[in-house]
Predict the 3D structure of the following.
Amino acid sequence: MSPTFSFRVLHTDGAARRGEMTTAHGVVQTPAFMPVGTRGAVKGVTPRDLREAGAEIILGNTYHLWLRPGDALIARLGGLHRFTGWDGPMLTDSGGFQAFSLGEQRVISEEGIRFRSHLDGSEHLLTPEGATDIQARLGPDIAMVLDECLAQPAPAAAVRDSTERSARWARRCRDRFLELQRLDAGDVRLDGETAESRVPNPEPPIPTPQSLLPSPQPTPSGPQITNPAQAQFGIIQGGTVPELRTLSVERTLAIGFEAYAIGGLSVGEPAETMYSVVSHTAPQLPADRPRYLMGVGTPLDIVEAVSRGVDLFDCVMPTRNARNGQLFTSEGRLTIKNARFADDGGPPDPACSCYTCRTHSRAYLRHLFVSGEIGAAVLNTIHNLRFYLDTMARVRQAIVFGTLESLRLSLHAIFSRPLSDS
Amino acid sequence: MSPTFSFRVLHTDGAARRGEMTTAHGVVQTPAFMPVGTRGAVKGVTPRDLREAGAEIILGNTYHLWLRPGDALIARLGGLHRFTGWDGPMLTDSGGFQAFSLGEQRVISEEGIRFRSHLDGSEHLLTPEGATDIQARLGPDIAMVLDECLAQPAPAAAVRDSTERSARWARRCRDRFLELQRLDAGDVRLDGETAESRVPNPEPPIPTPQSLLPSPQPTPSGPQITNPAQAQFGIIQGGTVPELRTLSVERTLAIGFEAYAIGGLSVGEPAETMYSVVSHTAPQLPADRPRYLMGVGTPLDIVEAVSRGVDLFDCVMPTRNARNGQLFTSEGRLTIKNARFADDGGPPDPACSCYTCRTHSRAYLRHLFVSGEIGAAVLNTIHNLRFYLDTMARVRQAIVFGTLESLRLSLHAIFSRPLSDS
């Protein structure tokens, strides 16, 4: 592992692990959930709210940040941490998933993904090397390799081709990552600048009258490293075919990354299929590295994956559902616009101690939501994030106490039943 | 004045007063600015953010809260303070201005204002007695009388008729207000309930499984007092005609209120006209009561009115402009979407210590605004409110030090110049 990235398992309960992941910007207690800050902001909350909710690490989307405001601009402003005001651990995806799902007229070749921006139609090419360079400039503590996101279901032959391409891309990402590290340690950059002329984490400029004037700066042509302590995770693909998952594990481990993610899940397959792939894949990953299940999921999905040995999660569900008026509570999901809450003076979740639950009633949250007030999104997000992060804290505690199975059953009792208010 | 409402002047500087207004929910240092919480929420911020920005009193809109979620519902849930989570001083307008400006097919008669709701077309009649009852149920610390908002410019005869009608409505509002107070002090309500059967400020119900079930409650048919310590302010009308302003002062003071507001300004007239009406009217109001200039205004308008003897202000400008990307700063107004800020790593306002300015750069705020992120509204609002409330703190300090004129000139130097970035 890199000098600043490390992981150790403190306790286990069956396959579940209670661990501690150390990054350049701090320590993350695992299993951990990463709130998603798509465009450099977790929608509806400030960095302070995130801390208060118990977040220890957040995720940023490379695709969005690359297209707007741009990785070069973020690098000039000191990197993603300084730009967003979140000073804790941060992970970025590679941008591949959004290039597939949001990019227009996309064409995938061995070279990379060619697409038109969903913002302005401009043409872009995302290569493994490019995705690595962009993340080097953004400067998260953890970068992800570019992988191919194959639409499912797909014929086994297509899944095999795609899995092998992802492995070749992973190799190119790692080569580029190591090359950047060597360049950063040496004196000379690809474009001939000396290392000393770069400031990895410049202090923000002291505001002066000049800072009010336009100061166009040239986009750096060569690579640039904002966070020299960045770690890089490989991604296991292989769809729902066990042998291809195993093949992907072999290929990806042979390259060697600080840690490994399981990708290509939570894309519409049945929950049982996802659990089955995780059961097959997680045990093949090194026990001394964190395992990250990308884009997952519901509280149930998370506890199921934890019990199969996964350590890291990210999902837009708590934040997106908050904006749509759906709260996760100790009594299950709750659709706040329901008329039954109009007169309900009780807290959104009686078992929760977040700012929203301490301060406001269901009746008030319903009023704000029905009135289209911004505050509805803000207060619901504060609660949902706390619920998710509290759930992770309970998961961690349960692993220490050896009671994860009992927690798993109680979460099923709460969340398996249909919405009582829908 | 009512037993719990009081005001005292601590210092003066010319006509300007540094005072202290005591209400049932706390003390307000004046001159004071009231952020506007139209629908029971100051858009984009939580009660905690308001406190941190330095707000000591906020305003709620009776029209909006009456139509949705309803004054009876808010009363059942313990009143506006408990409903909104803001436990400090609160003032509501009478609902008249919005009934005029938002209500459809409105017809004004001696009885009151008949209109159709902008929400669902339902027909409503807002009378002086009704406006008083609604505010009694909402339970702010300060209620306003219903006045007629005449479209300007209007012939002098129409202004006179309207001014006299407003005075008659003020009389009816005060009569109703005093009647409600007598009923509250006695044993019997208009509808025959005993006073003991009402709980002025019920504790929120302890959540039980039952609280999850629908619990329709009948709308109280009679009046109801949520905040027995409520004060009521009269409103001076009279358009821009000095004699009619004087007439309105005489009529309104003859009725007698806890304090008085100057209404009918900031409706499109030139700033000089507004200042002139304030100069004419404010000195005629009792020196031992706070004076409230409704709906005003820009930082310049506020300092000009303070220097003419006004103590209280409210305006949507800091919050609305924040959502539109305009920041008030010590360097003037700043349009955050301007391209010159794309690369600006400096704080929004170098002289400000709000959360936004401590945490984020202009470049980041621009990025959020251009990307349509909720966070843009939240962070801009946190800053603009702090700027307004800091400005009020500087105004109060300047009065104590006898330096208001110098502050007035410096605010003119900052805000009279055209937008440098537009």
About this structure: Confidence is low (pLDDT under 50) at residues 187-220 of chain A.
